[in-house]
Amino acid sequence: MKYNIEKLNQIAQKVAEMVQEAIEDENQEGVLIGDVEMAMREGLREIGGQALKYFLENADGEVAAEIECACGGKLKYQRHREATIWSVFDKVTYRRAYYASCACGKGCAPLDQRYGIEPDKVTAGLAHLIALSGIDKAFEDGKKWLKEYLLFEVSENTIRAETQKMGELQRQAEVQMIAETQDEASLQKRERGPKREVTCLYGSIDAAKVRIEPRDEQEKAAENREKWRDLKAGCWYEGESVPKRQRSARQRHKAQREGTVLRAKNKQYFCDIDNAEEFGKLLWATGCAVGADCAKLLVFICDGAVWIWNLIAYYFPNAIQIVDWYHAEERLKRIAEDVFSNLNERHVWLEKVTEDLWQGRVELVIAACQPFSTKSELARLAVTYYGNNIERMRYDQFRAAGYLIGSGVIENGCKQIVTQRLKLPGAQWNLDGAILTAKARTAWLSGNWQKLVSARSLLPLAI
Ligand SMILES: [Zn+2]
């Protein structure tokens, strides 16, 4: 927004004088820049609150004796009524024209409607900031943290409610996408429409456990109630090579070995706590949104869970399936630690078998684990794991084709969604709370936060 510089200067001078006077009045010695900044922020917040009040009161325009009611009837002007909102400048009370006496019994303040204001509620501007703390921090910590930024207090309950509203908006958007991509007519229309040109797209899916607390005595008493639920998360992304200058030490090392280093870009996360079938619909819907259904090349990098491969095979039968390199390699490390006490022997075995895996010689890897399968549970499970995934571990071919082979993206995504938020100390979740907070967080991580903020400005939500 552009402002008249001269006017701004005048106001700025007034603010400076005001702060100066306040400091002198309090007779404070040794005032430093931090004190001046704080005094100015406090003053500016008060000015903001006043300005918002004046703005709203001026924006009301001329009062009409009568206006149309949404029901088709007529509303008559009553009087100027007071309303209160919680804005980024704290509580603001203003007066605006209020109309009533329609046969339908409803009243109306056109100003509130025009600006998307709900009296007695948090404004969209404040909701945006509150929810931002809610997707990042335990609500209790968010409260302290927000107070430093906003200079007034917001309750934990408000933070929870506003965060979940953002999640609800994300959920509504997803429900819409799912409806469109499950509907035959919409799919056919999409088929005829312009296609997104995606050359190479990646997908990854993973799951992490979230503890769900019983909400009330009845839930507590219910038998067989699952406390730990799987949060399923997925990510769509594209690969790009990391420029030489930006490579980390680990990536430089990797570049020596692999020739090139790829990283993920344009990451789009999605998540839910639901069964595989329902999650599959979300996978398909989000996939259609990024053009996975018509990508020239589609590669899935996942860890071995069977339900994941089943969903991929069902929705994207032509996709290339790769078991995440780091998971595959990690297993070998754990087996080596389990079966060799002699460090030298451990090292020799591990180096050989890791190289075999790297070269896509999965049969040799299985053969190397086999002899230990009677004494090591890890080795026994690994024989099945590598055996079930042989074609998904042809790392030599995948590397030669220039594909990413590690799903660090989704690992990281799950960590960012689950560990770094849902598992924070002090975090207690009912099922909906966990889902909505996680969904709001995926919107942030995917760069779609502004869409939620815009949607939040538009609709007064009833949840
Ligand atoms: Zn009416």
Question: What does this 3D model show about the protein?
Answer:
The chain has 3 domains: 1-121, no CATH class; 179-324 and 406-454, no CATH class; 327-393, no CATH class. The protein has 19 helices and 8 strands. The chain is 54% helix and 16% strand. The chain is elongated, with a radius of gyration of 29 Å. Bound molecules: zinc ion.
What brief labels describe this structure?
3 domains, 19 helices, five-stranded mixed beta sheet, 463 residues, 54% helix, alpha/beta, 8 strands, elongated, binds zinc ion, three-stranded antiparallel beta sheet
Bound molecules: zinc ion
Q: Helical residue percent?
A: 40-55%
| CA-atom Rg in angstroms | 29 Å
User: Which outline best applies?
Assistant: elongated
In percent, how much strand structure appears in the residues? 15-25%
Helix and strand composition category: alpha/beta
- Mean pLDDT across every amino acid position: 89
Total beta-strand segments = 8
Number of helices: 19
Strand order of the largest sheet: 6-5-4-7-8
Q: How many strands, which pairing sense, and closed or not: the largest β-sheet?
A: 5 strands, mixed
Query: What string, H for helix and E for strand, traces the elements in order?
Result: HHEEEHHHHHEHEHEHEHEHHHHHHHH
Name the quaternary structure: single chain
Summary of the model, kept short:
The protein is α/β, with parallel strands linked by helices and 463 residues long. The protein has helices at 5-25, 33-59, 110-115, 124-134, 139-150, 156-182, 184-192, 217-221, 249-258, 276-290, 306-315, 325-339, 343-358, 362-369, 377-388, 395-400, 408-422, 431-445, 449-458; strands at residues 66-68, 74-87, 90-100, 200-211, 228-241, 262-272, 297-302, 320-323. A hairpin with a 5-residue loop joins strand 1 and strand 2.
